[in-house]
Structure of MFS transporter, NNP family, nitrate/nitrite transporter:
Amino acid sequence: MHASGPATRIRLFDFNSPQMRAFHMSWFAFFLCFFAWFGIAPLMGIVRAELHLTKDQVGWCIIGSVAITVFARLFIGWLCDRIGPRLAYTGLLLIGSIPVMGIAFAHDYTTFLLFRIAIGVIGASFVITQYHTSLMFAPNCVGTANATTAGWGNLGGGVTQMVMPLLFGFLVTTMGFSSAISWRLSMVLAGIVCALTGIAYYFLVQDTPQGNFHELRRTGQMPGRKQVKGSFLAACRDYRVWALFVLYGCCFGMELTLDNIAALYFVDYFDELKNMDSVAALRTAGFVAGLFGAMNLFARALGGLIGDRFGARWGLHGRARWLFVAVFCEGLALMLFSQARTLAVAVPTMLLLGLFVKMSNGATYSVVPFINRKALGSVSGIVGAGGNVGAVLAGFLFKSSAINWPTALLVLGVCITFASFSAFFVRFSPAMEAEALEATNAAVAERHSIQELAPAS
């Protein structure tokens, strides 16, 4: 790969080139953001008891945790087009760490809800991760790069389900802290790590293979800030962006929802856990819920990889059709999971659901980089916000006293299955297909030439 251009392949053990440094730093930063964003979710059983939260209040906490992210993602996409991903990520990590640590001072429902809402800002990190890798990788592998960095970042949602109960247990049983102090200390530690990563991001990465935005603008190698004016409105006027908005609401919205409710769902609706003591039930539920998030280790990358393969064979049209298949199967799997009543059935069906949820996420962002390159940040932000809108709408189902949570999951499965047909609105002109094909062929040719030269060097 050339340091001066987008990478034509992903070299996981390369930590020196600017492309791969951005790859590794972006997924790691997103991992920590996701870990902190949902760090309180597996501890909600403890928080609910301490703060005497009702089902309705828990529902509002679920909604609040993802609602603010809608606006944060729209803003951060707009900001990335102007200042670049390096400064955007640094600022977000430093600012976002404040409410993560601040939730330790929550003492009632109102203060807890306010901090839970504020923590949601850190979820905008996803947009920067996708934006940064889209700049750093060529069309032949950008879908795989986007899906891998996002998937490994989303893995934080699974790891936090497993780690936070263990950390909580360590602080209670080994360190001797009370449960009220322990869940608070757990969140403070998560916030400190996020802040330190923000500082590291500033010093270790650059915006593009050629350099940082301000340097490139000063030398006339890229448009100035005034020249990108109107990019957000251009993205808003493209109906394909809104089709992807809906589809991402179906897949990432479902992921956010399950990250928020999974531990409580297993504790409240499965008799196997009801018969355990509270700490053991919390750990078991956290582990089982964590398996869903752990699917991000490979499943989202697989969705992007398949998207790239479909794109290589059938063009941009093929990427959109793969997205339809993935989301359609996700809806069917969710309906199946909603009917599980024992852990022996629920766990494998949840893993099947997780596979299609993550692959759908990856498939979506194997399409996004080809919608409008000049408004890439805005497109990424709008589509990313769709995931949170989906989670907010789902949250209202889970706070309703009219239906139980299994029924809510069934309703969502039906809605997602029908919404998957939105993928047929994601179309590309012959000119766009030809441009993408030319860029892909050029990237493949460059990759082959580098491989041929490698033995000689």
Q: What stands out?
A: The radius of gyration is 22 Å. The chain has a mean pLDDT of 90. DSSP finds 18 helices and no strands in the chain. The CA atoms of residues 21 and 359 lie 24 Å apart.
